[in-house]
Design brief:
Radius of gyration: 30 Å
Shape: elongated
Strand order of the largest sheet: 16-15-21-12-13-20-17-18
Number of domains: 5
CATH class of the largest domain: Alpha Beta
CATH architecture of the largest domain: 3-Layer(aba) Sandwich
Number of strands: 35
CATH topology of the largest domain: Rossmann fold
Bound molecules: guanosine-5'-triphosphate, magnesium ion
Helix content: 25-40%
Length: about 700
């Protein structure tokens, strides 16, 4: 059983980047090169360590994040380090898994296809890594391919991401090998295919010494500095984003892999050298403040679960990063604010789908625990009660906006459905299954059509549940645009005791909290005077109104953005009871809403379409027919454009197919919830006409 690694001897790296750029192949190559596997698998042959699931073989893409690890030797000393590598999916629909991996690592290694250049996901994930203050490195892969413009690509990278992106090595002709230009001052044999060793060497050395005045001085006085002496400055550069090294490789042929391994072991930050993760502590009043910790195995435990996996053999797995302290088998540890500790029965390191048992994992390492039901995505494991409320600053995960309504093919699957969806949601932070009361549909939401297609496949393959899907109805919300008054007198005489309650109220619009869809923006005010309605009946009136907020007043959708002021009424000493005021409140409210210029709000999304330049006009004019507004267009590289727009979600239900046919498959897009907007009157009229109305509940 492996011994625990000291933080200085660990490198944690997430391989991120656009789908098909070669992350999984690179993972395989690195494992092979380090001797962790005896034979190199390939994506085409469905035998890589990372892509092991049936769905991945079928789609030929990674569909979730996978951890592998290996030992690698330093090129500068005789020590070796443990490399934990997270291979993440690059398809936009699965970007949640990539974003979720970032808190576990010191470095985001952004892989770019040498021929295709910067693509949508490249930019998105690079930007998230930057926002999260994570050191980055860029790997330009597939340098074995023909007709590449690598010099142009480096220029574009510097254009788009900034001049701090600099080659640390340069490829030779045909992508046969690379020359480390941080270390070499002159070419010793083959020349690089562009630039020169001297020029690239000078550029990167000057960039590094810039962060340290004394080094700058020494450099400009005496010239050359030993890379070992520059190590500290190099780490500062990475931490501050003052340098983003670019490496060239071919995962396929193995060219550049030795040097990449060297960069990983000898240049990329160890857990001690990385930037601290943004943990926050919440005090009793819910105020958050930064939580400080140190990457020290001898301090109390602080570990963060960044992934939940359903393992076919050991069951539910929580994959975590130890940030402080250590976790040992048989330890008792706390999860968040849970009062009862859990006992750690087994600890694992993951190698693709395999679990390798270990005794302990120290600060800086990544591992997994099995069969702890209380663990969730984002859970914090600790041994210190001061850390009860500690959690990681919220990740910018995209909101699942693409929905499909579900019907089960077989009724008998009903009992299996809820547990299966529960498990799948735990594994995927961007997947939601929900019952939408407004539309009486069960809906699954994800990041795109492919995402949900894979979910459908998994439901069938792993849980034996077959479903049918259809476009869901739009989740409108009702609101009002004007002030109005409403009144209802509820009176019912049946035999002995009757029901009596009378309510006068005013409604007025409130600014809607568009982020919060689960809660209505609502205020209820008692403005009655002189006991016209006894106090004890006001909660009943509010209850009646809240019923309407849930069911809607004009179209059957939940309401939001309303302030209600009850200002008068009547009661009866015998016949006034709770139920009478619930009904009177409800009807008086519907009465007022109908006079208050009721409106429908519909969800709008941010849309970012990336496509070859020549399609820009088509994309923009198509969006305008969808009530979309183009807000910005940005060129990335010489022939790719990003169109940023806002559009109603309801118009984009079939956008992935439409964009595909519009651009011959070359376009891609992302959507993210933006806000809600008032629906045009013609659409509102249709929706209202389709509403069957309220049951008369008198
Ligand atoms: N020529 C060439 N092809 C490569 C290289 N690396 C990967 N490929 C091919 O590129 C394709 C995509 O490779 P993957 O490793 O699956 O890419 P990925 O980045 O993991 O893709 P996702 O999992 O979708 O994010 C496969 O057909 C690989 O064989 C390379 O260095 N050279
Ligand atoms: Mg992959």
């Amino acid at each position: 059983m492996a011994t625990e690694h000291a933080p200085a001897d660990i490198r944690n790296i997430a391989l991120v980047g656009h789908g098909g750029s070669g992350k999984t192949t690179l993972t395989e190559r690195l494992l092979f090169s380090a001797g962790a596997i005896q034979r190199m698998g390939s994506v085409e042959e469905n035998n890589t360590v990372s892509d092991w699931s049936e769905e991945e073989h079928h789609h030929q893409h990674s569909l979730r994040q996978v951890m592998v690890h290996f030992e690698a030797k330093s090129h500068m000393s005789d020590k070796s380090v443990l490399v934990n590598l997270l291979d993440t999916p690059g398809l936009g629909d699965f970007i949640g898994h990539a974003i979720a991996s970032l808190p576990a690592v010191e470095t985001a290694m952004v892989v770019i296809d040498a021929g295709k250049g910067i693509e949508t996901v490249t930019r998105r994930i690079y930007n998230v890594a930057q926002e999260r203050n994570l050191p980055r490195a860029i790997v330009i892969n597939k340098i074995d391919e023909h007709d590449l413009d690598l010099e142009g690509l480096v220029e574009r990278i510097r254009d788009v991401f900034g001049n701090q992106c600099l080659p640390i090595n340069l490829p030779t002709a045909g992508g046969e090998s690379v020359i480390n230009v941080f270390e070499a001052e002159h070419a010793d044999g083959a020349e690089p295919v562009f630039s020169s060793v001297e020029e690239a060497h000078q550029q990167i050395q000057e960039q590094v010494v810039e962060v340290d005045d004394s080094l700058t001085e020494a450099y400009f006085e005496g010239g050359e500095l030993d890379p070992v002496k520059l190590h500290k400055a190099f780490e500062v550069c990475l931490r501050e984003g003052h340098l983003v090294p670019i490496c060239f490789v071919s995962a396929k042929t193995g060219a550049g892999i030795d040097d990449l391994m060297h960069v990983i072991v000898d240049y990329l930050p160890s857990p001690l050298e990385g930037n601290p993760r943004p943990f926050v502590n919440e005090d009793e009043d819910g105020n958050e403040s930064p939580y400080e910790y140190s990457v020290d195995p001898d301090k109390p435990l602080l570990a963060h679960v960044f992934k939940i996996a359903a393992d076919p053999f050991v069951g539910k797995l929580g994959v975590f990063r130890v940030h402080q302290g250590r976790l040992k088998v048989k330890d008792e540890v706390y999860i968040g604010a849970n009062k009862k500790p859990v006992r750690i029965a087994h600890l694992y390191k993951r190698q693709g789908k395999d679990n390798v048992e270990v005794e302990s994992l120290g600060a800086g390492d990544i591992g997994a625990v099995a069969k702890i039901d209380e663990l969730h995505f984002g859970s914090v494991l600790h041994t210190d009660h001061d850390a009860d409320k500690v959690h990681l600053k919220k990740l910018p995960l995209p909101k699942p906006m693409f929905g499909l309504a579900i019907e089960l093919k077989n009724r008998k699957d009903e009992s299996k459905f809820a547990p299966a969806t529960h498990k799948m949601m735990e594994e995927d932070p961007c997947l939601i299954f929900e019952r939408v009361e407004a539309t009486k549909q069960t809906v699954m939401r994800g990041l795109g059509e492919l995402h949900l297609r894979v979910v459908e496949e998994k439901l069938k393959d792993q849980y034996g549940i077959e479903i049918e899907t259809e476009t869901p109805k739009i989740a409108f919300r009702e609101s009002i645009a004007a002030n109005a008054e409403g009144h209802h007198r509820h009176k019912k005489q049946s035999g002995g005791s009757g029901e009596f309650g009378e309510v006068y109220l005013r409604v007025s619009p409130l600014p809607v909290d568009h982020e919060n869809h689960d809660e209505p923006t609502f205020e209820f005010v008692n403005a009655t005077v002189g006991g016209s309605i006894p106090k004890q009946f006001l909660p009943a009136i509010e209850k009646g109104i809240r019923g309407v907020l849930q069911e809607g007043a004009i179209a059957g959708y939940p309401m939001t953005g309303v302030r209600v002021e009850v200002y008068d009424g009547k009661f009866h000493a015998v016949d006034s009871k709770e139920i009478a005021f619930i009904k009177a409140g409800r009807k008086a409210f519907i009465d007022a809403v109908q006079k208050a210029k009721p409106i429908l709000l519909e969800p709008y999304v941010h849309l970012e379409v990336t496509a070859p330049n020549s399609y820009m006009g088509d994309i923009a004019s198509d969006l305008s027919t969808k009530r979309g507004r183009v807000q910005d267009t940005e060129m990335i590289g010489s022939d790719t454009v990003v169109v940023k727009a806002q559009a109603p979600l309801g118009e984009l239900q079939n956008y992935s197919n439409q964009l595909k046919s519009m651009t011959g498959g070359a376009g891609s897009y992302t959507i993210d919830f933006s806000h809600e907007e008032r629906t045009p009157p013609n659409i509102q009229a249709e929706v209202v006409a389709a509403f069957k109305g309220h049951q008369d509940d008198d």
